[in-house]
Amino acid sequence: MKIALQRVDDGFNMEAVDENGHKVLMDSSLENGGKNNGVRPMQMVIMGLGGCSAIDVMMILKKQRQEVTDFRIEIEAEREKGKEPSLWESAHLVFYFTGNIDPDKAARAVELSMNKYCSVAETLRQGKTKLTWEVKLNA
Questions:
Q1: Gap between the terminal Cα atoms of the chain
Q2: CB 50 within 8 A of CB 110
Q3: Closest CA to 75 of 101, 98, 104, 54
Q4: What is the pTM of this model?
Q5: Within 10 Å of residue 109's Cβ, how many Cβ atoms?
Q6: What pLDDT score was predicted for residue 30?
Q7: Distance between CA 50 and CA 71 in Å, rounded?
Q8: Fewer C-beta neighbours within 10 Å, C or N terminus of the chain?
């Protein structure tokens, strides 16, 4: 993997580009001297958790011929307080599925992703992040 990071302005705004040309803007908050023009790097880690798990879950359910008409994940995460560096202490994911989906298959797909396949989840777990989740069908 190759990532290039380029400063965009005179502050903390950075543009990251992967080897395929996909771009992401990162910045710091206004209170930390940034211009709030991009995602915080630590937010990107949590976004990566959601993206990693979403891909796993959709692959598993597609192989099981489940009819997913809509899917989303909402994540609430907390960082350690009063520490530098401040790691992720916990993250709770809610997986929302719509469609003709077997509830047991959806729950198993999420469990497999979070405990076996998702490298971001394991990376966070190695950093002592407590990961929890729940599955909601047609809610």
A1: 38
A2: no
A3: 54
A4: 0.94
A5: 28
A6: 94
A7: 12
A8: N
